[in-house]
Amino acid sequence: MRILVADDHKLIREIVASHLEKGGDFEVSQSENVNQVIQQIEDTGSFDVILLDVAMPGMHGLQGLQTVVAANAPGSTVLFSGTARRETVNDAINLGARGFIPKTLPARSLTNAIQFIASGEIFLPAAFHQDQIEGPTDGPPIQNLNPLERSILRSLCTGNTNKEIAREQDLTEVTVKMHLRAICNKLGAKNRTHAAMLAREAGIA
User: Fold this and answer.
1) Coiled coil: which residue ranges (predicted)?
2) pLDDT digit string (tens) for 15-33?
3) How far is CA 43 from CA 46, 59, 72, in A?
4) Which residues belong to CATH 1.10.10.10 in the chain?
């Protein structure tokens, strides 16, 4: 899997690149500004996932993101930042970003997040989901689940393991774990058993 770490802080780039190269089947490149990102895409083709620092030179707000998203298609581009306002993340997703990875994400979770994004999903950290469900909603938490999350939850209620759910949904186990975490956060569930109980109470199991 080809990954591009785009950040103007050399230390951050090198730490992230080193971890990814050691912890997964990744070929990692680095860039320090938007112009370099575009040039590397033109030289070597699109990357599977680009981690794009939201405050990197050449970004000009989200204008740079939009440029990189278009240039890197059909690969995925995700915001990579120490902090990002929810409004900024939502705007970025509307422009084609595949979510937001905070620089504070634990190393192992970073690898899982990248695999999740590469599978075609949108990644948001657990805290982001929690912020969303704590605010006003249009209905019960169950209604906040998307169709795939509902399907995974129904499968969970039948007692299937992550491996069995992955096979049933044609997903990887890592992707299933990410979805289950999002489901628990959206439902306010403490764990998968609690999520299954809430699903049965809501009548979707």
Assistant:
1) none
2) 899 888 887 689 999 999 9
3) 9, 20, 12
4) 130-202
